[in-house]
Specification:
The strands form five sheets. This protein has a six-stranded antiparallel barrel. It has a four-stranded antiparallel β-sheet with strand order 3-10-8-5, with no helix packed on it. The protein has a four-stranded antiparallel β-sheet with strand order 7-6-4-9. With 367 residues, the chain is an alpha+beta fold. It folds into three domains: 89 residues, conserved putative lor/sdh protein from methanococcus maripaludis s2 fold (Beta Barrel), CATH 2.40.420.20; 87 residues, Beta Barrel (Elongation Factor Tu (Ef-tu), domain 3), CATH 2.40.30.170; 139 residues, Beta Barrel (OB fold (Dihydrolipoamide Acetyltransferase, E2P)). A hairpin with a 4-residue loop joins β12 and β13. α2 runs antiparallel to α3. The chain has three helices and 22 strands.
Length: 367
C-alpha cells in the first residue's frame, strides 16, 4: 500500500468518527429529574380586597409664602451690603447701608425752610396784632387789617408745609439703613456696592423659611375635586418622605389658557427642614377604589419575575406572577394575577419552590 492511499483511508476514518460524534451530540440529553417536593412550615395569609384612597398626583415645588424685594425709599449710592446670596438672616439684621449725603442735605434744606417759615409767621403775627390795635382806634382801615390777616394765615400755611417737608426728609433718613423685616434667607443680590439705589428698584430678595408652601397645578378636569381646607399628602424627593401631611390653603381660580391648569397652594408643617425650590409631588384624595393588597414580605422573585406563592386546598405552594401597583406602607396593591379570598404565603424566605407542601405555622389576618 502506498503512503498516499494510507493517508486517504485514515482521513476517511477520522471523518466517520467525527460524524458519529456529531450525531451523538444531536440527541437530547436525559432530562433532570424534578426536585422532590419538600414540606415547609410557613405562615399563610388570606388576601382580601379592601377600599383605598384614589389619588390624583401632581408635581410641584416648595415655595416661600413670604418673598420680599428689599429696596430703598431714599436715593443714594450703596455704601455697604452686609449679606450674600444663601445667607440666613434674622429680623432686624442690617442688610444694606446707603450713602446718607443726599438725605442729610435734604434735611438741612428743610430745617432752613422751617426756620424761615417760623420767622415769617412771627413777623406776620406781629403786624396783624399791631394793625388790629390801630384799627380799634380808627387809625387804619379794615382793608389794611384784612391784608395782614391774609398774610398771617399764609405764613401759618407756609410753616405747616415746611414742617411736612422736614418730616419727610427725616423719615427718609431711616431708609439709608435697611433692616431685615423677617427671619429668612437671601435668595438674590441684585445690586453691588457703588450702585445707585433708587426708590422701587430691588437690591435684595429674601424669603422666609418659617412659612413654607407647596405649590402645584391641577388640571381643569380635577379642579372640582380640590377644595380649600382639604387634606393632602406631599412627597418631597430631597427629604425621602412620602407621607408629609398638607392642607389645601388656596386655589387660584384663574387657569392658564394654554395648559388649562390651576395653581394650588398647600400649607406645609413647621420644622420640616425643606428649602424653597425643592421638587415634590402632591397627592389629592379624589375618591376610593377596591383593590387587592398583599404584604410586602409576601412578594417573591423567581427567574426575574415578581409574584407570590399561592397555597391551594391541597396545601401545595404554586408560584404565580403578579402585576404590582401602589405601595401602602407594609402592603402592596396587586393589579393583576390575584383575587381576593385566595391564600398565599405571608412571607418568602427564599427556600420555597413550586410544588412544596406547606404546613401552616400560623395564619394572619388578611392584608
Amino acid at each position: 500500500m502506498t503512503r498516499p492511499t494510507y493517508i486517504a483511508k485514515a482521513t476517511w476514518a477520522l471523518a466517520g468518527l467525527c460524524l458519529l460524534g456529531l450525531a451523538a451530540c444531536k440527541q437530547d440529553p436525559a432530562p433532570n429529574a424534578a426536585p422532590d417536593a419538600r414540606t415547609l412550615e410557613l405562615p399563610v395569609v388570606q388576601v382580601l380586597a379592601r377600599p383605598v384612597d384614589r389619588l390624583y398626583s401632581t408635581p410641584g415645588s416648595v415655595t416661600s409664602e413670604e418673598r420680599i424685594e428689599v429696596s430703598s425709599r431714599a436715593t443714594g449710592y450703596i455704601q455697604r451690603i452686609g449679606v450674600n446670596e444663601g445667607d440666613v438672616i434674622s429680623a432686624g439684621d442690617i442688610l444694606v447701608e446707603i450713602d446718607p449725603t443726599e438725605v442729610e442735605g435734604a434735611i438741612r434744606r428743610a430745617e432752613a425752610a422751617l426756620s424761615s417759615a417760623k420767622t415769617s409767621l412771627e413777623n406776620a403775627e406781629t403786624d396783624h396784632a399791631r394793625l388790629a390795635g390801630l384799627q380799634e382806634r380808627g387809625a387804619v382801615s379794615l382793608e389794611a387789617l384784612r391784608q395782614t390777616t391774609v398774610a398771617r394765615d399764609l405764613a401759618r400755611a407756609g410753616l405747616a408745609e415746611a414742617q411736612a417737608v422736614l418730616d419727610t426728609a427725616l423719615a427718609g433718613q431711616k431708609y439709608t439703613t435697611l433692616l431685615s423685616p423677617i427671619d429668612g434667607i437671601v435668595v438674590a443680590r441684585r445690586k453691588q456696592v457703588g450702585d445707585l439705589a433708587s426708590p422701587g428698584i430691588p437690591i435684595l430678595t429674601i424669603e422666609s423659611r418659617e412659612r413654607l408652601l407647596f405649590r402645584t397645578s391641577v388640571s381643569e378636569s380635577q379642579i372640582a375635586n380640590v377644595q380649600v381646607g382639604a387634606a393632602a399628602r406631599i412627597e418631597i424627593d430631597a427629604l425621602a418622605e412620602i407621607d408629609i401631611p398638607g392642607e389645601v390653603l388656596r386655589v387660584i381660580p384663574s387657569g392658564d389658557p394654554v395648559t388649562r391648569r390651576y395653581d394650588v397652594d398647600l400649607a406645609l408643617p413647621a420644622g420640616l427642614g425643606a428649602f424653597p425650590g425643592m421638587f415634590g409631588r402632591a397627592h389629592f384624595v379624589i375618591g376610593s377604589d377596591i383593590v387587592v393588597l398583599v404584604p410586602n414580605l409576601a412578594l417573591a422573585t423567581r427567574g426575574g419575575l415578581t409574584g407570590v406563592f399561592v397555597v391551594g386546598d391541597d396545601r401545595i405552594a404554586r408560584f404565580r406572577w403578579v402585576h404590582g401597583g401602589r405601595v401602602f406602607g407594609a402592603s402592596t396593591e396587586i393589579r393583576a394575577g390575584l383575587e381576593g379570598g385566595e391564600t398565599i404565603l405571608a412571607r418568602d424566605d427564599g427556600r420555597v419552590r413550586d410544588g412544596d407542601l406547606i404546613v401552616t405555622a400560623g395564619a394572619g389576618p388578611g392584608q
